[in-house]
Amino acid sequence: MLQNRSSDLTIETDRLIVDRELDSVLAKDGGTLSLDTYLLEQLSITYNGVTTRLEFVTAQLVVVTDAGFRLWYIDVDGIKQTTLLHMFNESEDIRVDMAGLTVSGQAFDAIGYFHPNVMHHAAAIRGDGELIGF
Fold it and tell me: What per-residue string of b and e applies to 18-42 under the rule 16 or more CB within 10 Å gives b?
C-alpha cells in the first residue's frame, strides 16, 4: 500500500477491481445474474477488539450473485469519524468484522477490508467471504 495519498489511490483501485469483477460476472453466458443494492441504516466495525458504530451520511451494500458466486462491497459516504479514517489510511492491517442493518430491517454480519478515502470522508469496504444474513 502506498503512503500519503494512498487512500484515494487505494479506493479507486478497489472500485476498479470490483468493477472489473462485476464486468466479468455480467459478461458470463447462462446462469442467473442478480444485482441488489441495499441502503444501510447502521454499520459497525470491529478492529483490534474495539467496536465502532460508523456515523455516516449514506451507505449502501451492493450484492452481485451469479449462479452461486457472490461478490459484495459497501460504499460509505460522509463518515464523520475522521480520526478513524486517518488510522486506517496509515495502517496496513485493514481487516474488519462488521455488523449492519439495512433500512428495511435486514441484519447482517461479515468480514471485509476497510479502504478509507480521507479527503472525501468516505470508505469502500470490500467484502471477504460470506455475508451472513443474506
Answer: beeebeebeeeeeeeeeeeebebee
